[in-house]
Amino acid sequence: MSLFDANLVEIKIYYTFKDRKGTKVLTVLKEEKAEEMLSKPEEKDKVEALTTQWSIMSWREQNTTVGHAYSKTNTVTGEKVFDHITYRDSIIKSCLKSWDIVVNGQPVPVTPDAIDRLPADIIMGLFAKYEKVLEYSEEELGN
């Protein structure tokens, strides 16, 4: 495998809609809970999944993301300020490459607008899993 090969990471998130006072509320499920529900015939139809593909950031994407994060200025000191929300948003919109979302029989393209329209819990869950995929354990580091 070359350093220049496209290296996509699959990230799947499970969710369900729970009824709260007559309103359907989206709930992201932990892997264990999803597996438990999927193993029960009476609950498996309640579990939905979103499968996504994410890229590992290139040097250019990393520089662009950090540049966006430092685009705000402290009005008192005039110093550039790191904005974690902008940083996270830039990573998501740069690295999320595909998903299996279909609406009215048509695949929904991954665009910044489409990402912005998804429920925050879904995006935050996907981002947390993406970060976890990129972490190395002490064992993997050889420490």
Give an overview in words.
The structure is a single chain. The longest helix has 15 residues, at 120-134. Helix 2 packs antiparallel against helix 3. The strands form 3 sheets. The protein has a 4-stranded antiparallel beta sheet. It contains 6 helices and 8 strands. The two termini are 25 Å apart. The radius of gyration is 18 Å and the shape is globular. Strand 1 and strand 2 form a beta hairpin. It has one domain (8-141). 10% of the residues are buried. It has 143 residues and is an alpha+beta fold. It is 39% helix and 28% strand.
Could you provide a short overview of the structure?
This protein has helices spanning 31-38, 59-69, 84-95, 112-117, 120-134, 138-141, and strands spanning 8-20, 23-29, 48-55, 72-73, 80-81, 96-99, 102-103, 106-107.
Fraction of residues in β-strands: 25-35%
Helical segment count = 6
Rg, nearest Å? 18 Å
Distance N terminus to C terminus?
25 Å
Which properties best describe this structure?
single chain; 143 residues; four-stranded antiparallel beta sheet; 28% strand
Q: How is the secondary structure organized here?
A:
Blueprint lengths: L7 E13 L2 E7 L1 H8 L9 E8 L3 H11 L2 E2 L6 E2 L2 H12 E4 L2 E2 L2 E2 L4 H6 L2 H15 L3 H4 L2
Antiparallel strand pairs: 1-2, 1-3, 3-6, 4-5, 7-8
Helix pairs in contact: 2-3
